[in-house]
């Protein structure tokens, strides 16, 4: 009796494992491969909290400054208090500052240069799961999957790199399959693809 129960339990467990792995395999297979090219040629950097911006006011060095963008997305400096910077391009911020400074000086000419980059939260590349250093990274034009993996230190020993998923917020959270093991461990450059602002890279743990 105990032997029959043991055999029945073992068979049920085996079917459960097979079924679970089947679901996982089908789930991975349902994601199309990520397109190789995804960069937008007209992309412009968007200022985010934690960035540092160098503001140069022509012929007015006393108004020039290097300031951080506060967590609330604002900056402050001489003659300017609590100006929104988050979500703007450097050029747009420069034009806004010219308008604000125009109240105090005649025809100001402002240049804004970002000197430390974090980017807006909506544009950061997030890496979760079995990366050596999971983290959020600022997006850069023409950034690729290989750039992302170098920044996070590669895969852990337990990663299922070829089962990784790229979730693309810019396309309504569409999911793509990516081959990280082929790219990182085998040097297969055909597995390298562009990333886009807001992408989330999910690296699962290997079952084997």
UniProtKB/TrEMBL annotation:
Residues 125-203 form the SLBB domain. Residues 40-115 form the Polysaccharide export protein N-terminal domain. It comes from the Bacteria. Its main location: membrane. Keywords: Cell outer membrane, Ion transport, Lipoprotein, Membrane, Palmitate, Polysaccharide transport, Porin, Signal, Sugar transport, Transmembrane, Transmembrane beta strand, Transport. It is found in: Cell outer membrane. One of its GO terms (molecular function) is polysaccharide transmembrane transporter activity. InterPro entries: PEP-CTERM_polysacc_export (IPR017477), Poly_export (IPR049712), Poly_export_N (IPR003715), SLBB_dom (IPR054765). One of its GO terms (cellular component) is pore complex. One of its GO terms (biological process) is monoatomic ion transport. It is a multi-pass membrane protein. Belongs to the BexD/CtrA/VexA family. This is Polysaccharide export protein, PEP-CTERM sytem-associated.
């Amino acid at each position: 009796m105990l032997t029959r129960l043991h055999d029945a339990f073992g068979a049920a467990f085996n079917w459960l494992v097979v079924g679970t792995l089947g679901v996982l395999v089908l789930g991975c297979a349902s994601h199309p491969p990520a397109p190789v090219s995804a960069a937008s040629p007209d992309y412009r950097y968007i200022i985010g909290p934690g960035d540092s911006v160098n503001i140069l006011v022509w012929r007015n060095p006393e108004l020039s400054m290097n300031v951080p963008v506060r967590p609330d997305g604002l900056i402050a400096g001489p003659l300017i208090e609590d100006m929104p910077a988050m979500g703007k391009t450097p050029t747009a911020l420069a034009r806004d500052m010219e308008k604000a400074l125009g109240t105090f000086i005649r025809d100001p000419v402002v240049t804004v240069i970002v000197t430390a980059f974090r980017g807006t939260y909506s544009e950061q590349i997030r890496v979760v799961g079995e990366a050596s250093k999971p983290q959020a990274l600022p997006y850069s034009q023409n950034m690729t999957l290989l750039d992302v993996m170098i920044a996070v230190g590669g895969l852990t020993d337990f990663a299922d790199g070829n089962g990784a998923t790229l979730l693309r917020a810019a396309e309504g959270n569409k999911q793509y399959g990516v081959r990280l093991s082929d790219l990182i461990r085998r040097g297969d450059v055909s597995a390298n693809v562009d990333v886009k602002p807001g992408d989330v890279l999910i690296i699962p743990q290997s079952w084997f």
